[in-house]
Amino acid sequence: MPDMVKADDIDRACELVDLVRLLTRWLFHWDDIWTDAEQKQSASAQISYWLQRVLEISRTELESISA
Fold it and tell me: Whole-model pTM?
């Protein structure tokens, strides 16, 4: 692996790909999610997780840029 690409960068990129896949799934099934209380609760929990994770990733990116 070249020095310019860090393993952490690849891991974060993979996580963001997972997020995009989740959002795409929601896009195509939103009517079902919205009308089912259990699915809506699950989506809410996933949103909370991903919000925190994206904030962590963005803070890490800012720290590495300023370093």
Answer: 0.73
